[in-house]
Amino acid sequence: MTAIVNVVAFILVFMFIVVVHELGHFLFARIFGVTVKEFAIGFGPHIYRRRGKRTDFRINIFPLGGYVRLKGEEPGEAEEPDALYGVAAWKRFLIVLAGPLFSIAAGYLLFMLIIGTWGFRPIVIDDVVPNSPAQRVGISAGDVVLKINGRYVFDNVDMTAVIRKGQPVELELLREGRKVTVNVTPEMTKEQYYLHFEDVQGEIGGEVLTVNNVDFETYVKSWKREYVSVSSERGELKAVLSNASITPKRYAIGIYYGQFSNIIAKDVGPFKKSDVITSIGGLKVENSVDLIDAMTALSLGNGELYVSLTGRKVDKVISPLPEQVVVTVHSRSTDGSTSEHTLTLAKEELKKILSTPGIFELAAPVFKPSGLEFLKLSIERTNRLALYIWRTLPGIFFGRNVREVTGPVGMVQIIGQAVQVGLETILTIVAIITINLGIFNLLPLPALDGGRIVFALLEMVARRKINRDVENLIHTVGFFLLLGLLVFITFVDVARMMGR
Q1: How confident is the model at residue 410 (pLDDT cuts 50, 70, 90)?
Q2: Which PROSITE patterns would you find in this protein's record (predicted)?
């Protein structure tokens, strides 16, 4: 049933996104007198069709895009006055440009609606690393970050990008209802290592010295899956090293971003709305960092171990929880009193419950701007998102950022999860997708709107017609290359879903 809901939600969302984009092409074609033969959502045979006086409106069976078919667009069609290639190049430029602009504009309008209706949630600090720059200037867990260097902060990526520059930053914090300003200078961190072991015997702790008699940092940078002997200050660990990842040195101030609280947001299984989880399997739970550790422990099987290190020093060792897990919960009754009780749940059942989208209340409080400030914040929020997309999206064509890209399969899953959380989350996802679509189509690549814009600009500059056969051939080759990219991203989506 959930899969059906996810697919239906995806189709509805995608239809909206496609209609907005194609509406831009449609309206500007009409404005400049170009005949629109078809306005279609999806590809393939139609499942719904309505013939208008001038346009054939269709919903097709494969809802993975859409198009407007303009007179004169197909090879061999005459360049008549009401055809796409029969109008001036500047008009064709605007007709093609209108689609991406409508998509991006829809993102701006959606963020205005979201921030005007629900406000936004600034960053909350979950925890502070001991002896870090943040701790030394008095930043503490629970502080809410409103601004960095005088600009509002909307997400972790936004704030991290500023900190990674390594320059001193000014933070405006909200602490117990009052605003506090602190100045902090990021410091270069050591490399961080995350190791997963299987068939574990022995123990690990303190500083790690060697792996198979090879210096630890030397070994882990060229690790392979094999049986290892790890020598540390607290003992020797013998196990199969099944995975290792490295976070390189970077500028940081020593904080953990708060994502969600330990308060249940809705009735799920034995948990009731407003229940507070305080421990899972004996592990203390106070914030999202603790919850992530608990989820890691729930995901580990017998004989497995998860170890994180900063440089050579072990920060955290997480062992698997038993098959029956005791959860401590604080509940609030109708008269306002609280009581503590425990639940014993099967490990897999608990993991599934805690993975439910929207099960926990978000950690950050809602900040709702007054007056027309929401308009300024909405524009600023969307500007930064659009700039981030513009900078990172081209990287997929050079093998970068591929894991950050989501295709149709991944979108079904993301939209389905958003449906379970609520309308605000759905609209946010729609806004992000439609801005992505608009910016992607502006890339100057064959078969995309950006490629057609380039040809229109060349014609405007050269003041003469470009051979249409050459242009069509280039767009056809580009279409098949983009189709190959779509297939590749679909495989990435499937691999991600399978946990590979």
Answers
A1: low
A2: PDZ
